[in-house]
């Protein structure tokens, strides 16, 4: 039985591996006409090793769904020609071959599958019936639909879809319905509306939201098990996001964040959990409530205070704030080093200090030499003047 079990496992591993093709510089030309989702990895990269089992699951699932996307991977350290063609700069790098779209989302199976399916299809997918329109609305949290006949706007819409298809879906339909609000240029409008109104937010998503120009209300909760208070904070934000969408969605995104490392760096301090904060990633500013928030009314007053200016924005990206964040990040980075390896920490801090001291010493030592040189020039000049006076007297 044991031998049979091992044989089954080996057969399954071979079957799963068959869905992921190993690509090298020689095989590149043979698959150029195919849609291939490629993972570029390095043998020493720990993140690549963590992604490897997920990558084989993706290959198996795409094959079972009959997707036109093939899944491959390539050792970027060995196949430098292929890595250079795709301009690989970090590992793991996930790109779609032929169209060369770079995946920048979370390294999860669902995220990568959604990316592969989105990029493999048409840039703008046609919704030819009411049933297809409703299916798209139910399936996607955020999507964009062009409604109308061919026009210069549709050409612009297609151009934007070509650039932003890595982030969201684009559709077209024949129904005579237009979005209610479409101020500013099309790309800016899509960047503002491409996120769901309420979602779980990580540091990457929060950073990307800075391009939208909206503020983000966050419920900060613990990373692992959520206490009753953390669950209440999450539910309160979700309720306000749903019940007051028409009022606040133009100015705010809503969500929750597990862990506070990113926010600690923003405020340069330790943020308590659970808590509320409004962040403005366009200028690295943030707003904190003036008092405890226990009810929905308190949270609405907090949002209104942010909008009307009664709650002042803190932080920002001024020179003083940037210098402060630099030293805070350095302290946070070095403190674990000092606690675990004091000698290494002393070296990392002491070496730059010693270099700066030596540089200052050499500068100070060079000053007397220069002043002595200047004094010598002055003596020569005065000597020449005395000789000139002596010669003038003799001539008289």
TrEMBL record:
Q: Does the keyword S-adenosyl-L-methionine apply?
A: no
Where does it mainly reside?
A: membrane
Q: InterPro entries given for it?
A: PDI_TMX3, Thioredoxin-like_sf, Thioredoxin_domain
- Protein EC: 5.3.4.1
Q: Which residues cross the membrane?
A: 341-364
List keywords of the entry alphabetically.
Membrane, Signal, Transmembrane, Transmembrane helix
Catalytic activity annotation: Catalyzes the rearrangement of -S-S- bonds in proteins
Q: Which residues form the Thioredoxin domain?
A: 12-121
Q: Where is the signal peptide?
A: 1-18
What's the superkingdom here? Eukaryota
GO MF terms here are: protein disulfide isomerase activity
Q: Which compartments does it reside in?
A: Membrane
Its record classes its membrane topology as:
Single-pass membrane protein
Q: Which SUPFAM superfamilies match?
A: Thioredoxin-like
- Tell me which GO cellular component terms the UniProt record holds: cell surface; endoplasmic reticulum; membrane
Name used for this protein in its record: protein disulfide-isomerase
Q: Origin organism of this chain? A: Dicentrarchus labrax (European seabass)
